[in-house]
Design brief:
The protein has 179 residues and is of the alpha/beta class. The protein has helices at residues 60-70, 76-85, 96-104, 141-158; strands spanning 16-22, 29-32, 37-39, 48-52, 113-116, 120-124, 131-135, 162-166, 174-177. Strands 3-2-1-4-5-6-7-8-9 form a nine-stranded mixed β-sheet, with helices on one face. The longest helix is centred in the last third of the chain and has 18 residues, at 141-158. The chain starts with 15 loop residues before the first strand and ends with a strand.
Length: 179
């Protein structure tokens, strides 16, 4: 059989913006602006590094797709579309990526950006040694940072030291004192 024709292949290189360094993994992974994960290859010196104790929360659109799969009323076309999307699912919520990059610019020098599966993203304040958490969603990053700074200033003025300051719930921030 002889086939005549042309095959065109278009390759677009993924550009990493984050390094996800997860406990228990042999090597870190890179994440692009769409939240897609891929193996780290080469140097990641200029990338934001997230030190994580777990995988990030599942993006909302992936949860919806998984719920559709579990629903028996899904027709064959929807099922086929869900199957074709599986390999292209974002690993990190694409809406979270710019907020995470913004938050990373506020990490104090000498501290690491972390992800805790229970409290979300944050860091240990290098000056005061307390932990600060901003949650898993990171919407309104500027507001979260201002709230944190106001709480931190209050503790500096009172010369008290909490163990944790959390702005996970933007309308109900909290702190825990050292035992």
């Amino acid at each position: 059989v002889k086939v005549n024709g042309t095959v065109t292949i278009k390759v677009i290189e993924r550009v990493p913006v984050l390094t996800w360094d997860q406990d228990g993994e042999l090597q870190p992974f890179w994440v692009d602006v769409d939240g897609r994960l891929f193996p780290a290859m080469g140097s990641s010196e200029n990338l934001v590094v997230v030190h994580a104790n777990a995988s990030p929360p599942v993006p909302p659109q992936v949860l919806v797709a998984r719920e559709m799969e579990a629903t028996p009323e899904v027709d064959a076309a929807e099922q086929e579309e869900a199957e074709s999307e599986k390999g292209r699912e974002p690993w990190l919520d694409p809406d979270l990526v710019p907020h995470l990059l913004h938050l990373a610019r506020s990490v104090p020098e000498g501290s690491k950006l972390i992800y805790d599966s229970e409290r979300g993203f944050g860091w240990q304040d290098p000056t005061h040694k307390w932990m600060v958490y901003f949650g898993k969603q990171l919407d309104q990053p500027e507001m979260r940072l201002r709230i944190y700074q106001a709480i931190a200033e209050m503790f500096e003025e009172k010369q008290r030291k909490p163990a944790i300051i959390s702005v996970e719930f933007i309308h109900a921030p909290y702190y825990r004192m050292e035992p």
